[in-house]
Amino acid sequence: MKQCINCMTRLPRKEVTEVAWCALCSACLRVVADQMKLVHDRPGGADVQIRQCGWCGVARSCGAGMRTRCLVCLDDRSVPDPAVQGNAQRLELDGTWRENSEFLAATTVKLRLAKYFRPGWTVLATDVHGLPWTGYRWLTKSHGTWGRNDETGEVQRLKRLRGETTLLYLVRYGKVLQFGRGTEDRVRAHVSQGAVPVLVLSAPSQQVVVARDRLKRAHRGEMVSQRTPVDLFEALPDGLDVTDRFLPS
Ligand SMILES: [Zn+2]
Ligand SMILES: [Zn+2]
Q1: How many CB atoms lie within 10 A of CB 188?
Q2: Is the pLDDT of residue 135 over 80?
Q3: Does residue 140 register a pLDDT over 80?
């Protein structure tokens, strides 16, 4: 027996279809049959397609010819995942279970896209295993993160840039706060994904690493409720406030 990940119905193996790394029953499959539109077919000859959700506009990378669905949107047949609802509760989200799930999925996608930001490129799409149903299983299967060169229009699989991380930052994504360490480009990438910079401190790289790890232990993760007091100055007393650099001029 297999279980449809969307409506949780248990069915014989031959009655489910593989969609976006998971199994769907035929009723759930029909709901999203026309959801994803092809926008880039096998860029650079890679065995990948980039498809965009016609419901919310978020794009995703997927194996060429494979069935997929939106990383964010759930539907009327979806049932809540207890782990995601636990996270929503921890983050004090006040929407319906579906709104909270979709918000967490959309934020997870934005955080992933921000990690691949590089000057001169537009990050187009990524693929997070488990979304839109269960963003918090630590599986790393992915069809990669893809971007378009702003000058040539070429679409390519992106690698993460690793610059010297001398910033400790706190940004707000809608109803949640996210802290982390990174370069100026990383903070700008969060802003380009819609985050609002709350506080950005600059300090020697080693101090930033220690401060981030302390905060992460104290808050059990890097995403916290917007009502959680996250004290960057306490974690990084010698940090220089450079928030101004990231505010809209
Ligand atoms: Zn189903
Ligand atoms: Zn969508």
Answers
A1: 17
A2: no
A3: no
Give the number of other CB atoms < 10 A from CB of residue 77: 17
> How is the chain split into domains, by residue range?
2-157, 167-246
- From ligand 1's centre to the CA of 2, what distance in Å? 11
CA 203 to centroid of chain Cα atoms: 27
| CA of 72 relative to ligand 2 center, distance in Å | 5
Q: How far apart are CA 235 and CA 158, in angstroms?
A: 33
Looking at the CA of 37, which ligand is closest?
2
CA of 59 to the centre of ligand 2 (A): 8
Question: Residue 199 in 3-state DSSP?
Answer: strand
| 222 vs 239: CA distance, rounded Å | 19
> Poorest-confidence range of 19-23, 89-93, 141-145, 147-151?
19-23
From ligand 1's centre to the CA of 31, what distance in Å? Answer: 9
What is the model's pLDDT at position 163? 82
> Residue 234: CB partners within 8 Å, gap ≥ 6?
none
Which ligand sits nearest to residue 25's alpha carbon? 1
CB 9 within 8 A of CB 1: no
Q: What is the DSSP letter of 13?
A: G
Assessment of whether the complete model's pTM goes beyond 0.85: yes
pLDDT, average across residues 8-37: 92
